[in-house]
Amino acid sequence: MFKSLAPPEYLATIDREKCIRCKRCIQNCGWGVYSWGGDKVLINTSKCVKCLRCYHYCPEEAIEIVDNPTRFKQNAYWGYNHLRNIKRQAETGGIPLTGMGSDLPYTILFDSLLIDACQVTNPSIDPLREPMELRTYLGKKPSSVEFEKGRDGKLKLKTKMPPQLKLSLPIIFSPMSFGSISLNAQKVLAIAAKECGILMNTGEGGLHEDLFPYRDNIIVQVASGRFGVNPDYLNAGVAVEIKIGQGAKPGIGGHLPGEKIPLEVARARMIPVGTDAISPAPQHDIYSIEDLRQLIYAIKEATNYKPVSVKIAAVHNVAAIASGIVRAGADIVYLDGFRGGTGAAPSIIRDHLGIPIEHAIAAVDDRLRQEGIRNEASIIAAGGIRSSADAAKAIALGADAVAIATAALITMGCTTCGKCYTGNCSWGITTQRPELTARLDPEVYAERLINLIHAWEHELKEILGALGINAIESLRGNRERLRGVGLDTQILDILGVKPAGR
Amino acid sequence: MLEINAGGMYYRDLNQKIRDAVNSGEKDITVRNVNGQYYIGDGLRGKSTITVEGVPGNDLAAFMDGPTLVIKANAQDNISNTMNTGKVVIHGNAGDVLGYGMRGGKLHILGDVGYRVGIHMKGVKKQSPTIVVGGTAGDFFGEYMAGGVLILLGLNNDGRPIVGDYLGTGMHGGVIYVRGEIDKNNCGAEVGILDLDDEDMKVLKESLTEYCKDMGLSLDEIMKKGFKKLIPVSLRPYGNLYAY
Amino acid sequence: MNHDYQKDISGCGLTGLISRKRRRIGGADIVKSLCLMTDRGNGLGAGYAAYGIYPEFKDFYAFHIMFDEPSVRWTLEEYLKNNYHIEKIEEIPTSPVKAIPIAPLLVRYFVTPLRDKMAGDIQEADFVVNTVMKVNSEIEGAYIFSSGKNMGAFKGVGNPRDIAEFFRIEEYEGWTWTAHTRFPTNTPGWWGGAHPFTLLDWSIVHNGEISSYGINKRYLEMFGYKLTLLTDTEVAAYMLDLLIRRQGLDIPSACLVLAAPFWKKIDSLPEGEREALTALRQTYGSALLNGPFSILFGHSKGLVGINDRIKLRPLVAATKDDVTYMASEESAIRAICPAPDKVWAPRAGDPVIVNLED
Fold it and tell me: How many whole angstroms separate alpha carbon A410 and alpha carbon A403?
């Protein structure tokens, strides 16, 4: 075969003096980088994605993965990826795929926002000793409530409250389907969600029966492919999400190739083994906003009025779209910024369509307030939440909660290598190969994810304490406690945030 | 015996008079018509006894180091703030944040107290502070307590709870004695509820004997009801909070 | 959307009293009580509010308006005349005080809305609120700082005694009084920024800082309130107007919004009450006043004192015969009531609600 004109990205190297020929690297690499040459390990470095599985499992630390020094000449304009993609396209005529969120150096607004703290005029609160509340309810809220006095003189609710989803803290797991990730990875999410009092989301791959015990912590998703959707499925979780779009690939459908549809995936998706699972770009029953309303209420009718979330990619006109979604009857608007992750997306789409989540939260929260309907739906913000600080900033900008996926996968071993779409994930996350998925023991890895959520919970409490507030609702939309650093007047205006020093 | 009429006097003038009297060796001072003057006894040293008639203002006996203050009425907030030695006796109720960082001496209160009483009290070796509250206490009683003794009697509580929520939260030293039962749900995660042993009884009786003498109460009456003891179960309750 | 707002922080002292029997009490008492707490303020703001002071005009809204420039008065009056019947206009009586060399022009108007100006089914009170919002945000240099019936606020830059002397507070008689001495820290004191803050019959004096100000403000803006007076206390006044007058909550329920019980407490309640309080917090999370505060709020039917849910600011209450007193310090009460029947410190978030007898 014609050797690719795109040099390998990484060089996998083995220190032959240290190597004890235990072959663990061969067993562990899902990409086929290593093979046995009779007396030593052979290396096909062009297959290496730097996922570091081999490094981690090499008992002698003999393996080193370095960026290939034989790369294209550095050019500030014609970047490495431009050259590499052109060469690959010249060789294949295809669209280069990628996984994870965009890694291009667009301005990260989260890193230009700083959070306030108390000094003297109001006391900071000690979150370890004093009560600090992160409990969050997602769902439609009335604009006011009415009571009647009970016979005992106690308050009795007269208003019928819309259904609410109770979270112990304002963080949930983003939708990731069985198919895009392994069942074991979904189990990790489910166990952790249950333990932490939060939610996971099936994505559009249906619901495997192994997840039934976690139904109180599951949102089921309905997307354009309608995989695995039947009345039982709609009622299997605590809420239903209509997926319109995804931050990493707004306006783009999905395509899980038949070779990644083994029996279990096929059963969950309710399709034959080995057929392509195609998610059309739009939902073909939604060509306009009134159609969305029709689907929302079709689902509410089918579920005896469970909360319905509508997930959209953050695009230029996100504020008006979100307003329409709220007026269409959604209980939750899920905004996915352009940095949001994906199992597979054309890199040209991932890197060039949409807007950042920070802008989207601010614009949507402002618009819903201007229209006096902010209480009508909760806002979930997703798309690149890297830390509890990002979460706190998103909430201060106006989100009710944030959703995380990449951060959760990182606890399972993910190193954001971005090759999820190949189905070879050596950590057993974005693969269906049984020898790889078996590596991801749900109980063991759930412990790590639970640790992460608890750590972020502590951090959020510390942030609230420093802010001198003891309930998350006092941070939500409280942009007065954010300041911008190095942002221009217009961006500050969009974010509704003052510059530091003011 | 020196009498000072504090009626309408600004706190600076009043406290200067008291300081001058103490410095000139006056051992027995009575201050009449006090109402709201701050800082009485603040930073005062020596062995004088100062009797206060009326409600003194905030920061009574702050940083005090030796004297005895007897208050014949209610008192306000921040009493015995970082007090070193000496004694404050209050024949009434007192407010919030009493004995903050108190490192020695005694604070005896006949009636009820507010929130955050005995907060971050400390004791090192022989120097150990004691607060005795005759009535009830609000939330965060003994918060961050690091040493010393807190005694809560709950007398005349008229059915109200003896103590509020978050009792001993963050406690990592010292001991709290409560006359009556304690609800574990109202305690910080760091404390354990125990019965008193002989050593406890000795400490308790010694403190209460003095308290009863100050207040004209009967020790036997008080001891008729059982006490519970709160102590920290760990010196470092947050050992697992931080990553490596 | 105007994001360029400033927030003022104030450490303070407050005091208030109410005669349940509507016995009108002279202003001398409240002045004496407030002046005891000299060290809680820094001379950069003080004020008084009183109810029952205008019996001869009790059916008219009493607009107290301050003008930075006398010329603004004519713009304002033009606007008022177009929308209100004006029963009486007079300068608010003041006395010269050495420590207050400069003061804005202070005028009061006893008015009632013109029927034909109230389009559609707008309520009279909403009409008045709209006027206050419009004047304060759109007529540069004019501030309506009091707009209730048979009540009034008197406030300015100065210490409690000077402001009392300036406004001749001792000459008024009211059944409810609140007062405030101010220690502003991050904006210079200005006349509009002193407490009490009022809207219609609501008057607020506040000690502490509302750390949730940013979201409270944005929440109120959603309901059409314009926060113009550059201080966080304003949100408390408008929040009460929203919760009680517009949304029909009773006072105890409104207090459960402002100083919401912790989930731990709510979860432990019996089902009906738990459901009610859960709904209240779910619905009004953005109305929770978070941060240290003690607040006295006066209204046409009574007086309420409340502090924050972990009691970071002081509040003491006392009763003597038909009068209830509330203040930051017990000594401020004893200054005017040396032997109360009962003295107590309200618990965190636990309101003291006193209603006038009919």
Answer: 14
Q: Can you list the alpha helix ranges (DSSP code H) found in A346-441?
A: 347-352, 357-370, 388-397, 406-411, 434-437
Would the CB atoms of C331 and B77 count as touching at under 8 Å? Answer: no
Integer angstrom CA distances of residue B211 from B76, B156, B196, C125: 20, 16, 19, 59
Structural domains in chain A? 10-94 (3.30.70.20), 137-399+442-470 (3.20.20.70)
Comparing CA positions, the residue from C200, C270, C188, C258 lying closest to residue C230 is C188
Query: Residue C120: is it exposed, middle or buried by C-beta count within 10 angstroms (0-12/13-18/19+)?
Result: exposed
Residue C160 has pLDDT above 90, yes or no: yes
**Residue A288: exposed, middle, or buried by beta-carbon count in 10 A (0-12, 13-18, 19+)?**
exposed
Closest CB to A458 among B143, B166, B241: B241
Report the gap between the CA of A212 and the closest CA in chain C (Å): 27
Question: How close, in Å, is residue B191 to chain C by CA atoms?
Answer: 19
Residue C287 lies in a domain: no
Whose tokens are 């709020």? That residue is C297
Residue C326: CATH number of its domain: 3.60.20.10
What residues contact residue C341 under an 8 Å CB cut-off, 6+ apart? C318, C319, C320, C321
A213-239 mean pLDDT = 96
Instruction: Looking at the complex, report in whole angstroms how far the Cα of residue C329 sits from the nearest Cα belonging to chain B.
Output: 7
Which residues in chain B are contacts of A458 at CB distance < 8 A? 241
The boundaries of the domain holding residue C173 are 13-249+292-355
pLDDT at position C2: 36
Interface size A-B, in CB pairs within 8 Å, comes to 19
Q: How confident is the model at residue A254 (pLDDT cuts 50, 70, 90)?
A: confident
Interface test with B, best of C36, C294, C309, C330 (most B CBs within 10 A): C330
pLDDT digits (tens, 9 = 90+) for C251-279: 999 999 999 999 999 999 999 999 999 99
CA pair distance A414, A429, nearest whole angstrom:
8
**Option in A129, A131, A458 nearest B143 (CB):** A129
Q: Could you give all domains of chain B from N- to C-terminal order, each with its CATH number?
A: 53-232 (2.160.20.60)
Give the model's pLDDT for residue C3. Answer: 36
| Number of structural domains in chain C | 1
C162 in a domain, yes or no?
Answer: yes
Q: How far is CA B163 from the centre of its chain?
A: 15
A37: helix, strand or coil: coil
Q: Using CA atoms, how far apart are residues A33 and A41, in angstroms rounded to an integer?
A: 10
Instruction: Please check the confidence at residue A325 and state whether its pLDDT lies above 60.
Output: yes
Domain assignment present for C305: yes
With beta carbons less than 8 A apart as the criterion, state whether B96 and B138 touch: yes
The closest of A63, C331, A214 to B53, measured between CA atoms, is: C331
The residue ranges of DSSP E strands in chain C, in sequence order, are 10-19, 25-26, 46-51, 61-67, 84-91, 105-113, 142-146, 151-156, 173-174, 176-184, 197-199, 202-208, 293-299, 302-307, 316-320, 323-327, 342-344, 352-355
Note the ipTM here. Answer: 0.93
Do the Cβ atoms of B149 and B130 come closer than 8 Å? yes
Facing A129 at nearest CB: one of B144, B241, B243:
B144
What is d(CA B71, CA A212) in angstroms, rounded to the nearest whole number?
Answer: 67
Q: Are A41 and A58 within 8 A, CB to CB?
A: no
Distance CA C166, CA C104 (A): 12
Query: What element of type H or E holds A447?
Result: helix A442-467
Within-domain flag for C167: yes
Phi, psi of A10 (to 5 degrees): -130, 155
CA separation for the pair C155, A360 (Å, rounded): 43
Burial code of C188-216, b = ≥16 C-beta within 10 A, e = fewer?
ebbbbbbbbbbbbbbbbbbbbbbbbbbbb
Work out the percent of chain A whose per-residue pLDDT is above 70. 100
Measured distance between the N- and C-terminal CA atoms of chain C, rounded to whole angstroms: 44
